[in-house]
Amino acid sequence: MPRPSIGIHRYVFLLFKQKRRRGQNPPPLLLNPSSSSSSPSTTILRDNFDSRKFAVDNQLGLPVAALYFNAQRETAARRR
């Protein structure tokens, strides 16, 4: 989920129907270089994820459904 004060995030969920049962070729794991600890963070970075390439690489065809929404963290509740 979004970290505080980052702004609006766009989320896209795509649903594919597999033609047969098989393993997926996941995108490579990228380590987060902005980790504050001495060891790199294992956060998977999905910036500029190419869903079309993923579908082709995994022989998924066209999506059968899609969901798109924007999300933003709410500010703290105000006292009344």
Automatic annotation (TrEMBL):
Keyword rRNA-binding among record annotations: no
Coiled coil spans: none
GO BP term, example: negative regulation of flower development
Subcellular location(s) of the protein: Cytoplasm
Keyword Cytoplasm belongs to the record: yes
Keywords of this entry: Cytoplasm
TM helices/strands, residue ranges: none
Record region (Disordered): 19-44
InterPro entries assigned to the protein according to its UniProt record, in alphabetical order: PEBP-like_sf, PEBP_euk
SUPFAM superfamilies for the chain: PEBP-like
GO cellular component terms, A-Z: cytoplasm; nucleus
Low complexity bias (residue ranges): 31-41
Protein name as annotated: Uncharacterized protein
Natural source organism: Linum trigynum
